[in-house]
Amino acid sequence: MRISLTAFVTLDGVSQGPGSSTEDTSGGFSRGGWFVPHLDQAFVQRASEWLDLADGLLFGRPGRPVRRANELAAEVRRVQHP
Question: What are the C-alpha distances in Å from 22 to residues 6, 34, 57, 81?
């Protein structure tokens, strides 16, 4: 078994709250959402390919509600725009 870690980290070492400004405000962090403005379709495709290679995914406790919200939003989009 091989274990691989994927993390989104800024050049100055921030690895917290890349998706939403309210995703992780622990420790007074106020710059969440730094990653979203830089997303493009090429990155989404590449990240999808990386995840497809995994036999399983491990999410920390704070990540589960965010992941579930994203899954629900994706399901709503599929229903609204088949």
Answer: 21, 11, 23, 28
**pLDDT category of residue 62 using cuts at 50, 70 and 90:** low
Our CA dihedral for 53, 57, 62, 65, rounded to 10 degrees, sits at: 90
The string of pLDDT tens digits covering residues 23-60 is 777 778 777 777 777 778 898 888 888 888 888 777 66
| Number of domains making up the chain | 1
Domain that holds residue 73: 40-80
Whether residue 16 contacts residue 24, with contact meaning beta carbons closer than 8 Å, is answered with yes
Domain assignment present for residue 53? The answer is yes
Residue 59 included in any domain: yes
What is the helix (H) or strand (E) element at residue 6, kind and residue range? none
Q: What is the CA radius of gyration of the chain?
A: 14
